[in-house]
Amino acid sequence: MGVSGSGKSTVAAMVAERLGWEFAEGDSMHPQANVDKMHAGTPLTDEDRWPWLDVVAGWIRGHLEAGTNGVVTCSALKRSYREVLRAPGVVFVHVAGDGALIEARMSSRSGHFMPTSLLSSQLATLEPPQPDEAHVTVTADRTPEAETDEVLELLGLG
What we know:
The structure is a single chain. The protein has a single domain (8-154), classed as P-loop containing nucleotide triphosphate hydrolases (Rossmann fold). The longest helix has 21 residues, at 46-66. The protein is mostly helical. The chain is built from seven helices and four strands. It is 48% helix and 10% strand. The chain has helices spanning 8-19, 32-39, 46-66, 79-85, 99-108, 119-125, 144-154; strands spanning 22-24, 70-72, 92-96, 135-139. It has a two-stranded parallel sheet with strand order 1-2. Strands 3-4 form a two-stranded parallel ribbon.
């Protein structure tokens, strides 16, 4: 979890690869209307996000019911969004970072529908996980490999 550009997809894919778990990119689960809205530079509302969160939660539930491990990315910016995704065995990995660093990362990537102009709205919306939420936090200020190493260590999987 984390704002767009934090590196969550890169780290999540690396975690999944190292563990041999299935990986899913939550952004690919957005309905086209959400993608179009973000591409146009319009922040999503809660009403836009609920159906998408339900799809991501369905992916999580499917893996839990099948007894298979997986890693899925999702901004999960608010506690109320994480409540939709929460289940026994689910641990949120918050990839947190400095706004200037994240903006620089967003500016250098190509082919993503989320424009840099929406970063400030994501940062304003972000409610970092609280101690009563199953989570670990890594700081997006190192190489993806180092961040992945830390995630695996914090989760007791490395």
